[in-house]
Amino acid sequence: MKILYIFAHPEPRSFNSAMKEAALRTLDEQGHEVKLSDLFAMDFKPVLDRRDFLQPKRTDVFNPFMEQMHASKKGTFSKDIMDEMEKVTWVDILIFQFPIYFTGFPAMIKGWIDRVFAAGFAFNPATGSMYEAGLLRGKKAMLVMTAGADEALYSKGGAHGDINELLRYITHCTLGYTGLEVLPSYIVFGAGKMSEERVRSEISSYIERLRSLAQYAQKN
Ligand SMILES: Cc1cc2nc3c(=O)[nH]c(=O)nc-3n(C[C@H](O)[C@H](O)[C@H](O)COP(=O)(O)O)c2cc1C
């Protein structure tokens, strides 16, 4: 399968980076074609603004949605966005890996989505192109996340509540909105302070999950 691995962690020696390295090795061993968007390493600009549009439709007033529609039609996004869109067009599965910040995306991933899943490219309300009719239909996505909190806190009845319900704004309202079919999330809880032994065992479990990605993707 063709996989885009979208990764956001600012520290190469972090647990997240160790997971990413293991993932790239494993996916390669499994014969997948993988492209990596390592957003901090790329110094990716995570904020949607006027600079995203090389030939704006209007220069007197900035309307981000209208400019995205216009740039999608004309192919006039800035190069960093066009490069990411090309990868998204190529892909079968997008894997997003990141540490959970305030029970959601860190800004880097949110910004990638704001800019790359642009109106007219990933969805189009004007033509009803959303959810099952979203412009990314036929492709899949999976979230891989680490959480500082223990699983009990993110369970039904726990202080935060059920993580999968809390993340529905991502899995359903964001990824699902563009037509992506979302695979079950992979979450490492209690990732803030881990022994070396636990790090090794978590990496092994993640490798196992990735080894069965193809079967998983077919089943779901
Ligand atoms: C700004 C910020 C917000 C965070 N918010 C949460 C949170 O809402 N829930 C949680 O479980 N952990 C939260 N954490 C903890 C991180 O998710 C945790 O440190 C990370 O997953 C550990 O992975 P790492 O060692 O690769 O950095 C937060 C950390 C930071 C810096």
Radius of gyration: 18 Å
Q: Could you say how many structural domains there are in total?
A: 1
How would you state the average pLDDT, rounded? 97
Q: Major beta sheet, specifics?
A: 6 strands, parallel
Low-confidence stretches: none
CATH class: Alpha Beta
Bound molecules: flavin mononucleotide
Q: Give, in order, the helices and strands.
A: EHEHHEHEHHEEHH
Q: What is the CATH homologous superfamily assignment?
A: Flavodoxin domain
Pfam family, one: Flavodoxin_2
Organism: Methanolobus chelungpuianus
GO molecular function, one term: NAD(P)H dehydrogenase (quinone) activity
Domain Flavodoxin-like fold: 1-208
Briefly say what this structure is:
The chain has 220 residues and is an alpha/beta fold. The protein is built from eight helices and six strands, in the order βαβααβαβααββαα. The protein is globular and about 55 Å long.
